[in-house]
Design brief:
Length: 233
């Protein structure tokens, strides 16, 4: 038993769950999970196809990116994950995919507006999209700058309220308190992106959902007086 076996197992499960949800093709995408007490992050290795991934392949690094456990090279997006963990101190896991609908909005450089109650149920605001990166940032430390691009976008937003972002020209990143919620958010984002795209195709002049309806739906699920689902006993 290695010291970080359970953390590696969580990261492995998160990666495989996203894969089984059909959000990851070939070696695209990566999920990581952090143990804040130990100060380490477990992430998918670079370039390993999901069907041949094993828990022991997961790489464990400290927050400076030094490998603590593992023989494979970590995902090339690791520096982006580390920037997110450093800035968003309450998050426990990060997921990155190139799932097609969310990626299409990211490539278009467009935030996903709240067009219906499916979106409002989870999020009362649009899914934000970063600005496109400057040449210097791309050439310098691209993956770290990708992280900064996200944290800059959240300068005026709450990463606790909005657990997802589109990186312009690239694709989505999601996070959550647990690896399960980070994965859930990736699946959810893809669904919201798909529905919003179809809506905008059917009616290119569609307006964002009325504020009253957004608030009604969001509060029914999340507010102090939420009444969706079964009461907890
Ligand atoms: Zn990517």
């Amino acid at each position: 038993m290695g010291r970080f076996d359970s953390l590696k197992e969580q990261a492995y499960q998160g990666n495989m769950d996203l894969y089984h949800h059909g959000l990851l093709l070939f070696t695209f995408g990566n999920v990581s999970v952090i143990d804040r007490q130990a100060g380490v992050v477990a992430i998918k290795p670079s370039g390993v196809p999901y069907p041949s991934l094993h828990p022991q392949d997961i790489v464990v690094l400290d927050l400076q990116g030094h490998i603590v456990e593992g023989v494979l090279k970590p995902s090339s997006d690791t520096p982006t994950h580390l920037v997110l963990y450093q800035h968003f101190t309450g998050i426990g896991a990060v997921a990155h995919t190139h799932s097609p609908y969310a990626t299409a909005w990211a490539q278009a450089g467009r935030a996903i507006p709240v067009l219906g109650t499916t979106h409002a149920d989870y999020l009362p605001v649009p899914v934000p999209c970063t600005a496109f990166m400057e040449d210097e940032a791309i050439q310098k430390a691209y993956e770290i700058e990708t992280g900064h691009q996200i944290t800059r976008t959240f300068a005026t937003l709450s990463e606790q309220e909005i657990e997802m972002v589109l990186v312009a020209g690239h694709g989505p990143f999601t996070w959550g308190k647990t690896v399960g919620s980070a994965v859930h958010n990736s699946v959810l984002l893809e669904e919201l992106a798909k529905i919003a795209l179809w809506t905008a195709q059917i009616n290119p002049d569609v307006k964002p959902l009325k504020k009253t309806l957004i608030e009604k739906h969001h509060r029914r699920k999340h507010g102090l007086n939420a009444y969706y689902g079964q009461a907890e006993s």
